[in-house]
Design a protein that fits this description.
The protein is an alpha+beta fold. Strand 4, helix 4 and strand 5 form a beta-alpha-beta unit. The longest helix is centred in the last third of the chain and has 15 residues.
Length: about 140
Amino acid sequence: MPYTFQVLTQKSEMLPHYPLIRQLSPGVTEERYAYLLDDMLAHGYRMVAVFDGEHCVGLSGIWVATKIYSGRYLELDNVVVAETHRSKGIGKLLTDFVQDLAIAEGCETLMLDAYLENEKAHAFYEREGFSKRGYHFLKRF
């Protein structure tokens, strides 16, 4: 059975996918996930989900914005493939789908952050044509 894609725009559509988010960010509780979605959705956040039948096996949040150095861009956020479905081509299908969506929405660039320690993801994104452009700095308070 081929994989199918859905662009999710409602919190109620995103909440059931918390287990996948937890694989990437185990410190984020389900309550915090729900709380953060409210703010993110108010700022144009959407989610692309990949399904194998009725089961969500991959997802990425997406945002569209503009920066001087990149022009209009689509940012992939919290990209994750279910542990049980990794190395089956889902990541490539997901990034290809998102790239087509970005082009359709007038974007010039795709962007994403990947954790420094996630070297497998770095290699994957480089194979997909992404280049490392710098460091993403974070200061919590």
